[in-house]
Amino acid sequence: MSLVERVVAQFARPTGFFGNIVGFIMAHRPSNLERNEWAISLLNLQPSDRVLEIGFGPGVTIQKMSEIVIHGVIWGIDHSEVMFRQASKRNKRAISAGRVRLVLTSVSQLPSFDDPFDKILAVNNVQFWDNKTDVLRRLREQLCTGGILALVHQPRIPGATEDDATEAGERFTHYLETAGFKDIKVERKMMKPVSTVYVQGRNLQ
Ligand SMILES: C[S@@+](CC[C@H](N)C(=O)[O-])C[C@H]1O[C@@H](n2cnc3c(N)ncnc32)[C@H](O)[C@@H]1O
C-alpha cells in the first residue's frame, strides 16, 4: 500500500496511534470545522429535532449540534473504535444526559432506532460506503415524512479540483434520486483548498 493509500485508509476508518492523530487533525483543521459548521447552518436544526450523524469522526459536529438541539436527541454512528472513543469523550456530558447517543457500527448495519429522524447528516464519508443507494434507501426509511438527509463533501484527495466538487454534487444527486428522495437541493461553498458541496433530499413517503 502506498503512503497516500495508507493516509486515505486512516480517514476511512481511523485505527491505532495514527488514527488518534487523524482524529485530532479532523477536530482542529480549519477546513473540517468550516465545512461542518456550514452543513449545520443549512440543516436548519430545531431544538426538538431528532438527528442522526453518520461518520461522526471525533464528534465535533455532534457537539455543535447538541448545543442547538437542546430538547431533542442526536444519534451518531461510526465504525471506528478510535473515533467512537474520541467522540464519546468530547460529548460525555450530553451522553450522560441522554441527549446524545453514539453507536459503534457501520452504516451498512444500522442499529434499531426508537423513532424516526427529522434530519440525517453525513459529512465526507459517503465515498467510503458500500452499496450506497441501498444504504440511502434504508436511511430514508428512518426519516419521518418531510425529513431531510444531507450529504456533504469536500474533495480531499491530493490535487482535488473544483471539477471534483462539481462531480461529487452530481453523483450525490443521482444517489439520492435513485434511493427515492425528492426535492433535491444542491448548495456549494467556495472554500480552500477546494469547494464543499451540500446535497439534500427529502423523504416524502
Ligand atoms: C473523513 S472522516 C470525516 C469525519 C467528519 N464527518 C468530518 O467531516 O470531519 C470519515 C469518518 O466516517 C467514518 N466512516 C467511514 N465509513 C463508514 C461506514 N461505512 N460506517 C460508519 N462510519 C464510517 C470513519 O470512521 C470516519 O470517522
Short note summarizing the structure:
The protein has 205 residues and is α/β, with parallel strands linked by helices.
Topology, element by element:
Layout: H1 3-12, H2 16-28, H3 30-43, E1 50-54, H4 60-66, E2 73-78, H5 81-90, H6 92-96, E3 100-104, E4 117-123, H7 132-140, E5 143-153, H8 162-178, E6 182-189, E7 196-202
Parallel strand pairs: 1-2, 1-4, 2-3, 4-5
Antiparallel strand pairs: 5-7, 6-7
This protein binds S-adenosylmethionine.
Q: What would your notes on this structure say?
A:
This protein has 205 residues and is α/β, with parallel strands linked by helices. The protein has a single domain, classed as Vaccinia Virus protein VP39 (Rossmann fold, 3-Layer(aba) Sandwich). Helices cover 41% and strands 24% of the residues. The chain contains 8 helices and 7 strands. The chain has a 7-stranded mixed β-sheet, sandwiched between helices. The radius of gyration is 16 Å and the shape is globular. Bound molecules: S-adenosylmethionine. The site of S-adenosylmethionine (SAM) has 23 residues, from helix 1, helix 3 and strand 2.
Count of domain modules = 1
Q: What's the main sheet like?
A: 7 strands, mixed
Uncertain regions spanning at least 5 consecutive residues: none
Strand runs, count: 7
CATH class term? Alpha Beta
Q: The CATH topology is what?
A: Rossmann fold
Cα-to-Cα separation, first versus last residue: 44 Å
Q: Which word captures the global form?
A: globular
Mean pLDDT: 96
Radius of gyration: 16 Å
Number of helices: 8
Residue fraction in strands: 15-25%
Any idea what the CATH superfamily is called?
Answer: Vaccinia Virus protein VP39
The order of strands across the largest sheet is 3-2-1-4-5-7-6
Q: List the secondary-structure elements in sequence, H or E.
A: HHHEHEHHEEHEHEE
Secondary-structure content class: alpha/beta
Can you name the CATH architecture? 3-Layer(aba) Sandwich
